[in-house]
Structures are given as structure tokens and as C-alpha cells.
Amino acid sequence: MRVLGIESSCDETGVAVYDTALTGPEALRAHAVYSQIALHAEYGGVVPELASRDHVRKLLPLIRQTLAEAGLGVSDIDGVAYTAGPGLVGALLVGAGVARSLAWALEVPAVGVHHMEGHLLAPLMEDDPPEPPFVALLVSGGHTQLVAVDRIGQYRLLGETLDDAAGEAFDKTAKLMGLPYPGGPQLAALAERGTPGVYKFTRPMTDRPGLDFSFSGLKTQVLMAWRDSDQSDTTRADIARGFEDAVVETLAIKCDRALDAAGCDVLVVAGGVGANRRLRARLDEMARRRGGRVCFPRPALCTDNGAMIAFAGALRLEAGQHNPPQVQVTPRWDMATLPAV
């Protein structure tokens, strides 16, 4: 089954073709992502109306480009998957409208995919994919969650952030130190030049039981340290390293606890922050110590992309799940309400 996947939940337009007749990375026939970073940079954040309009401009050309790279025509598509939520309602409606129109015209089934389930399942597209049960760390600009995966489509929330998501904390911390938008990747790159231990910030909520996160206080600590410093380039790098170390260690401690709580030793990590080099190394070290394993998607599939939507949609379409022809999206959507595959 060849499934066209469309992602348009926020500020990136993603399209992909996934072929269930193939296995491993080869099953992803083609994928492309158009980022709106330059469009939103002057505003310091995503402007929903501008995001929606840019999806309208870019989506159809990107579909044509992706099909051409896959060596396929529109008539070769057997199903369509699209992000139905959570996300920005206008942006979601653009992707859903195009997806439903294509499916109707081609007389093929279409299915709305939960954006975070797409992220969660992305590592399963790689070689030697993990089998449930496992624990998933979903860590991005909008989400930081620990989820027990009993089977595909059957999820239990173990813990989540009470305020800022980890990626959001990266972006806000970078902004307060004067780094350009989007700040998270800039801060991570800057931390590579910092000296570890010069600034040591607390590991939030690790001194008490539980699997929830909180990063707003850490952001405040960085603000105070930066305000009281000489604000030199060296100091900026040292603070960035101290901040990144605190986030990485906090995530590792909570993941270790979550694996104990779920009674398993397989961890799946997905979402934009999952591309962070230091986080990958620390979680791999933790998993090896436990005698388990940690699985990541390739870095290009950590951020929002159509490949994860095509794959998640293919699993549901092959299980006989699809949606009625109405264009419907769910901007706020609890992943625990999804049906099992």
C-alpha cells in the first residue's frame, strides 16, 4: 500500500510517500519538508494566520515534487494520511482539506493522524524497530511527555510537563540571552563551546517522586545568571552548556524512572529535541547501564515531517481504519483516546 502523508500542524509543510510493500528505511519512498522559519523570524514566533497561508502556497507543489522523487503518479496512491491534530486549527484545515480532496478524487481511503502518535512511531521506520511494550519520550517545542506504549494505538500517559515543554524552554532561554529565532538549535550549538560545570543549574522536580516535568524555573535561573554576568561570548556559551546539561540530565533521570515504572528496558525518543546530540548520548548511556536499548528516528525525522504521518497512517489504513469524507480536525486531542491498531 502506497500512502501519501501530509503534515501541516504548525509552521512546517511536510509530504511523504510510504510503501508498505517495502521494509526498513527503503519503505520511505520520498519525503520533503518546507520550513517557514524565515517567514516567522521577524516576529520571534509562529504567526498562525501566516502559517496557514504559507501551507496553502506550498502544499500542492510539495506533493508534486515528492511524487516525482518517488517515481509515482497521483493515480499510484492507495491511501492518504494527514495530521488532524493537535495543532493550529487553520494550518490543520489546509492539510486536511487537500488530503480529503485527493482521497475523494482518487476514490481511496483517508485517515486523520494524531501528530504526537506520528512522532512516537517515527523510530519504528528504522532498521531493527522496537516492539511494544516500551516507554516513549516525546520531547519537542510543544510537548514533553513520557508514555507507556502497550501496543500500537494503546498509550498510557506516565508524566508530562506542568509548564514549558523542553523545546520551548530551549527557545525561550535562547531568546533571553539574545540569540536569534529559532533559538533552540542556536543554544545547543553554542553549548558545544561552553565549559561544563561553570554554571550548574538545578534538575527540576528530580528531588521528589513522580514523572512530571517543569522547566519554567530553570529558565528563570538562567535569566538571573545571565543578568548578573558580564554577558561576554564565553559566559553566554558557559550558561548555555549549564542549561543544556540540566535539561538533558533531568530528562534522563525521568526516563530511568519511567522504565522502572513500566517494567521494561526499551526507550523510544521522538520529537525535535530528540535530535540533540548530548541528549542522545546520555540516554544511550542510561539504556546500556540498564541492559536495555534506546531507539531514535534519524535526525531529519525528529522535527515535524510528512514521513511520520504517512507511516502512522499506513498502519491504521492497513488495519482497516479510516475517516468519513468530512474535513474535520481536532486542535486539542488526547492521544489516550485513540483506538488500538
UniProtKB/TrEMBL annotation:
Pfam families per the UniProt record, alphabetical: TsaD
Matching CDD domains: ASKHA_NBD_TsaD_bac (cd24133)
InterPro entries, alphabetized: ATPase_NBD, Gcp-like_dom, KAE1/TsaD, TsaD
Binding site for Fe cation: H115, H119, D304
UniProt main location, coarse: cytoplasm
Known catalytic reactions: L-threonylcarbamoyladenylate + adenosine(37) in tRNA = N(6)-L-threonylcarbamoyladenosine(37) in tRNA + AMP + H(+)
UniProt entry keywords in alphabetical sequence: Acyltransferase, Cytoplasm, Iron, Metal-binding, Transferase, tRNA processing
Top enzyme class: transferase
Keyword tRNA-binding: no
Residue span, Gcp-like domain: 29-311
Localisation: Cytoplasm
Cofactor descriptive note: Binds 1 Fe(2+) ion per subunit.
Entry's family note: Belongs to the KAE1 / TsaD family.
Biological function: Required for the formation of a threonylcarbamoyl group on adenosine at position 37 (t(6)A37) in tRNAs that read codons beginning with adenine. Is involved in the transfer of the threonylcarbamoyl moiety of threonylcarbamoyl-AMP (TC-AMP) to the N6 group of A37, together with TsaE and TsaB. TsaD likely plays a direct catalytic role in this reaction.
Protein's UniProt name: tRNA N6-adenosine threonylcarbamoyltransferase
Organism this protein belongs to: Stenotrophomonas oahuensis
